[in-house]
Amino acid sequence: MNLRRALTHPLLWTALLFLVLPFVAGANPFKGQWSGFLGIATTMVIFALFASGFNLLFGHVGELSFGHAMFFTIGAYATALYTRGFNAPFLGLTLHHDSANNLLIALLLSIVIALVWAWFLARLVVPRSSGIYFSMITLAFAQVIFFITYRWSDLTGGEDGLQNIARPNPTGYGWLHDSMHFYWFCAAFVFLALCVLHWVLHSPFGSVLHAIRENKQRARFLGYDVDKFRVNAFVLSALFPAIAGWLWTYYQQSINPDAGSVQYSGNVVMMSLLGGMQTFMGPILGATIYYELQNNVSQLTKYWEAWIGIVFVVFVLVGPRGIMGLFDDIRHYGFATAIQRGFSRKTRVQTDLQEELPPVIEDPVATKAPS
Amino acid sequence: MLYILVALGLNIILGLMGVINFSHGAFFMLGAYLMFQFNGIIGIWPAILVAALIVGLLGMLFESALIRPLYKRIPEYTLLLTFGTALIFAQIVRRIWGDDAVRVETPSYIPQSINIGSLAFPFYKDVFLVVVTIAILAGVWLLLNKTNIGIIIRAGTRDAEMVKILGINMPLMFTFVFGIGSLMAGLAGALAAPIYAIQPDLASQWIVLTFVIVIVGGIGSFWGAIVGGLLIGILSSLMALIFPPAVDVTGYIIMGIVLLIRPRGLFGVEGLFE
Amino acid sequence: MSAPATNPAPATDYVFKTEGLTRRFSGFTAVNNVSLEIPEGGVRTIIGPNGAGKTTFFNLLSGLLPASEGRMWFRGREITALPAYQRARLGIARSFQITNIFGHLTVYENVRLAVQAVHDGKANFFLPGSRMGNLAEKTNQVLHDVGLYDSRDARAENLSHGDQRRLEIGLVIASDPPVLLLDEPLAGMSPTETHETVDLIHRISPGRTILLVEHDIDVVMAISTTITVFQTGSVLAIGTPQEIRANEAVQRAYLGELA
What we know:
The complex is a heterotrimer. By secondary structure, chain A is an all-alpha fold. Helix content of chain A is 66%, strand content 2%. Chain A is built from 16 helices and two strands. Helices cover 71% and strands 3% of the residues of chain B. In chain B, strand 1 and strand 2 (119-122) form a beta hairpin. Chain B is an all-alpha fold. Classes of the chains: A mainly alpha, B mainly alpha, C alpha/beta.
């Protein structure tokens, strides 16, 4: 790998970002706030992973799932319930824990349950839907999970959720109770997971996903079992939110149904688009920007969500390739042209050839009389 | 019953234009809030009408300003944009009317309940709304099937190009249809105002339910919205008697079953009406 | 399907056989009860007036559309219900009338995807170093074959129309298929481009069967082994170019149109 490629490698920049975040996240020099907030940094890092997993499906396969928070919340609740112990007489299961040191088992549980649900859902939904239909269905199924966490109070604590969840304590010295330590713990895990994601995206599997995004029909005619790839991508895209949920429970030391809400699903969608959905760093950047905005704007008005909504709407209209896309354009075309392209550019105009083509009207002009 | 109106409004838009309005629930909510606002000024019935009309007009403005630029792109962009606007609407509503729920006072001349045989039914909810909904549905059906505009809408569903060639102004048509769909949502909201607690998260509650009905009934289908809505409504009520904790999930279970056996929805036939 | 240097001998001597193949679109029958056998080898062209059902027939063979009625076989194996991607893996490669490439990917990536599909299209996360090398080699070879090696790093959507058509052909030959379905490959080409593409077709035809839909009668007459004439969904005539030229029914069909 030559120097230039190494210097522009997204993983390098991600690592740099993670190194810098605890010192700048949420900082606001204009208000004399010169140092960063660890809480915000940790949140950014966790959601960077969540958004990146979601974006595997959205930016790289081209399928918009509006319910990805369901995997996040499954990971979070699985972790919470395992760590805290639970009593589910209905299922005939009980788990008692005084202190939970086995964070890896919690992680395993989170991943397995999330993937099982993802696989089941993928097999049901993916071959039968695409486009906005798929989006609507994923949204609806996410609500199933949401309502389970909301209604099954005996198990999940209902609307209030579960509290007093202990931070993992692998060393026995409570090392992770310190916010700074916990941040590095999160950053390390997230970075590792992102490395895996990067590897997947650059593998042959990843290139087929891109092909499917560009032209599903053509990929089929090259011989790829497109539906199988879509199913696999869907399941894979659930892995990372589940890990993020695991971290989230430990970070907050509590969990409530919000983690699986439409809002959370929508937030990662916004993060991915804002950051740049067809790039690796896009969702990561998007998560950072989102929480930075939230922090700064919420200090100015309690209607900060409206402002984020406005920013998002503007990006959808004129800058759908997000910030990374803007960088790209500026790099290639210079600042003025980049803005202009934002207004005229059609992103991903190619739509799938429909499954049932109407009869092709053969062009009367092309016919030549036989000699 | 009102969710049928909302779902039908969405289906009309989906059927003709192939775009989905995530803010449809917000229009419903606005209808409710506007009704509340005007109720004090001009009385219950005019308030309902005015609220519905305002939402309809708002829908048309919304479409021409924000949705039209996205027609060249894949429909996901409309979904994304309207998701963003739903957020904005929710905050606007909070700003104007506050975070707490508001309630509409119904005038005293509306009876609380009405007796049919030996059973007492809540008048407004079970009798009046049902009658009104049926009347509106009939009106919409007439519009779609017996008027010139209706024929254009149904024809334009698959062949927007052809209809354009016939000299019909499609962009105007789209705006108009979007207005009608939004008006239905607003009307439903206005009608709902007297019996619901009106609060900012009304929008997100209703939009998901609407999506489920549309999926079950079939995208773009007139009867689909009706049958889908009824099916889910009736089965949810049954579930409330059998196993209350699962009431919210009933709709999704039905949706899952429908997806398994008939992925296009009960009446979904390539997005056409009926 | 592995990438054969030589194509294995088929079990039968036809490449496609159809029996009562029919396709209807709500009230309109595009392909009407077509029963024929297309022999192995050579360039078999399908011609016919507009709306004759040529492209629909292609769509049926390649699996883009399901048949309303009838059955079809590919080299002795029934494919009537087989999904499109599996037909592609059996060796039926198809190009499209409207250029159908991966716009945002580079030319190189486009072809590599097609080559990669040959490895059973499973696309693992790993690819052993040896096969990776093979992929690159094969991709470059295809690029050279269609004359796009120099533009390999360009984005496909930025190519000229003629180059895009060539990429389209590159995609179909990349998997080394025994059968090629080319749907109006010369559409919209300049005379030079037409000449080059015809050359290309000549170059790749040995050892394969090429099914061609085309309107350019001069080209059709020059390169076809046999010509099948479609009209309103049925086969009007099949024969060598000379036989077709002399066929009265065909003359009536075409000249009747002009009157």
